[in-house]
Fold these 3 entries.
Entry 1:
Amino acid sequence: MGKPDQGQSKKLEAAARFWAGERSQPVGGLDENVIQGLISAGAPDDVIELARSKIKTGSVEQFEVYEENWETVLFFLALKGQWRVISGMSIFYQDINHTAIFHTMEMLCIPKRQRKQLFLDVKLMASAALELLNNHKD
């Protein structure tokens, strides 16, 4: 679990935004290039229309995670119940509880040499998720 490069960091941020509900980017690998490929390959019209509808509705619930980010994403997901939240007339997410992060690292026997980078990666993901969690208010 070495320091992620800029592309890995962007992918971690995107994974967190996806977890928080963002579906503005094509998901599951479906985009207009796939549609054009289906047309070129002679796919039946119903298959092409189904793919188009999935792009429009964002109904494909998949997100690609780089192999080198997999453990970080799993760790982030393990913390899903550890958000500090202020509730009243509305809900405001503050951050993931830092104590919970470190206790979870201990419980999962994360080697000490990996903890700093894992903490930084989780904070990066939390920051990306917070943008959506606190902006999707009715």
Entry 2:
Amino acid sequence: MTRSAIGRIVLAAAIIAVCLAGFPGAGLAQSATTAAEQGAPGGERRPVFVAGPWRVAVVAAVRQGAIPAVGLLSEAGNEWVLIVADVTNQAPDAASLAVPDLALLPEGGGDPGTFAPNATPRSAAQLGTDPDVSNAVAFAAGETRRLTTVYQIPATFGAPVLTLTQTGLPLATALQAPADLTALPQVVPPPPVEQAAVAQVLDGSRIKLSLPGGHTRTVRLSGVAAPTGSACFAKEATQRLTALAGDTVWLEPGDGSDGNGYVWAAGDSGRVLVNRQLIADGAASLAPSDHGRFADWMAAAQRSAQRQQLGLWGACVAARGTTAQAPSDAAPAAPPATADACAGAMGWALATAPRLQRATTVLQEFKNYDYADPTLPATLRQHAAEFADLADAKRAMNVPAALARSNEDLAAGFAAWSDAYDLAAQGLDDDSAAEINLAVEKANAANDLISRASDEFKSAARDCGFDV
């Protein structure tokens, strides 16, 4: 009786699995993934981040229980993360990089993933990348080499962040992109940069440069939306760009033909990406439509600035409920409440997408259950624990105020599914139709919450101009 009654939960799981697969957060993440699959000017893969002299462009990233292409087998309760990256030494001199220094951390904090010292060289050899991780890998000045790293993580590990020294790159976009490990693209170095003298800082996101040959050019910093005119923090944004740029910069082409670019300045341990540093300091915000090569790295810097209420996030957003405006000659800025939602919408979607995928995978397993299997209650309780972890992870995220309800409803939906799995397991143990009925009610309540979260986020995303 109870094992046939549980079929109603199967139906509920199938319905919400479809809803999760189409959740707007996954759609926004996929839009960023499409950009990630395209090479930047010069062919460099994305996403990209920089730590000191090292520039790391992620070519492929895979998170799975098993990765057959390189012979990594599944282990109960654990997953593998494999990363293929093109690493460039941007220093003027030769340098060495210890591959294990590329660490994997869960977003929001926690224990790091375990670097796999045996699986890494085996996988590298299979993929034809540099397999030597026993010693530091030597790079000539300006040299780009392809490296492979492998980590083992618990299945409940949060959204992975690839870190080096004091900075990190969220891997949600890279993990969303299809990765064919049998047909990796060729190694391509970063785009060339051009040295230029700073002629004038026009505002917090525009700078006039004197280029070799006597040419001048006004460059808008790619991915940067800074306040201008009489807007809150406009003066401070201009002052911060002036201080960061100094007298000499290096100009890197932007991601399109719009004349935007990336500006680098000299730093203590290598060049500093001025675009990102402005956002990290809270002097500007990330342009909502930015899908450039550094977008994920810059979005992580913005989330950190928001948490600490740096710059405009403290002086304007927290104090007055307003946000940075786009430069006056750019497209009209959105109203303050919408701009606040936009500031974190893409980052929220990218961080949420892996959790939606995991929830969908678990729910779809219902159709494969053997209801005569005496170990089924234990399996259901394991999935209950997974959904509880997903709920906790959602509630631990830093979420813009405009998305808070969507995030909380999604977390509550995950928690309700955890309760549904627990009740179903208890119902099977006790052969209790009443407990199964309660499980069905919990599953339906979970679906209502997740559907509402989808609608709420969809509305906010449309206000931000995203196509959902």
Entry 3:
Amino acid sequence: MTFIHDAGFRLWYDDGIHIGAVWRQALADALSNATALIFFSTARSNASPNCLKELNFALDDELPIIVVQLDSTPLPALLRLAIGDRQALQRQTLDTHAYRQKLTDALAEVIPLEDESRQSGTLIPAFHLSTTFPQNDEIAQDYVDDLLEVMSYTSFRIFSEKTEPQIYEKRDFLVALSRRSPEQSIRVKVSAFDGQQLDTWSFRPEAVTDFSYLQPAEIAERLTGIMWSYIAHTEKELDDASLDAMGLIARSRTVYKGLDPRSKSIQLGRERLLAGAIALDPNLMQAHEDMAIFLIYNLEGLFSRDVAGDSARALQHARKAMALNDRGGLKIAATVESTFGDVDQAARLLDRLSRTAIGGDRAVSGVLLRIGRAEEVVSRLTGATNPRELWPLAQAHTVLGQYDLALAVQQELLTHIPDIATANANLANIFGHMGRREEGLAAWQKACAAQSGLNYATWVRGSRVARGHSEKFFRAMVDGLRALGLDDD
């Protein structure tokens, strides 16, 4: 269904909603706010009482209904009456291009384009994927399918070999995936629209060791990082006033990279760029998502000067991102709701997030910890070797009082990131819970050396923000330090 979004329409469908009252309410809310309904007619959907209820709801609200027949099953009588003389789209008689063109044309007749970004002067980057895998290479094909799903959650437009050829624009990127023999790794090559090669690397999808194991979500993160950097680099000579919303976002992601995030001037600079992007294009999901992430980072990193105000703003922007694209804004919405918002909504979003390729065990585990479900984190991550997953696993063991396990995982994590302040502070906390004071104080001194200005009071304040709705999570992450006597400093 990505092609419908790419054509400029905002699409909602009941992906991952549980049957029951929440499901019924979600459908009713979606239909009440919809401008039209697409009904995919099959033998199964035509016989479904729930589908017929949705049709009746839409008919009662006089919503335009566009019918796509996926098989030869006759349409329900109420639907034949509703569409009158209009023809349903016969999918089996149309090739892919003709089908997509007819469906988007039909939508355009009844729905104003929702993608205000393309009408506001924002040039949306595009991601063109090509592959050279043997047809029987199921592992590689699965990676491609998951990668396309993950990329569909971004603000980039997506084209694959199954879509029609495109004329490349200055923000279009070509990504080629191929198998390399004899090691059978997958090679990724990223090029700009003019053929300039930007990056190339290889990975083995079968290998699950350290950072060499790249889940599709992590591959997408690396790809989008390359793309954002290229956009910022090609537009570096332009002043801020000459950039569109995407250009401002790219600049906010790159120009301050590596600089001290605690600096007030740097914080204000990044926030100014993101606020400018939102002002230029208030319906660009990526701008609201980036602003929510920026505010969360400031809060969790103890850099915020207005905790209450920034918490409220993070929640506001996360919810706006979700409203604009309930797929693209899903991860940040789940994270922010579990931290500052509605715990029940966080649980519902978590359920959807866990069913997607973009979620990943780290994102899901973070939400689980903040809503008080540490046992599920241990169940999901026990045996993990990826450092991204060791972090929440150590925290979950700490919450559950499994300090020997927490210590083993935390020490393994520190072999990968030995100089990160928060990782050493978490180690000190575990030692404190175990009554190993000298080792705990040594780990705490290393944490303080890695981040100037860190002390027990700032750690407690940041932990209160970062641990969300779980008091047990918060206490588990500070009481070990208190046992070391740091609260007396």
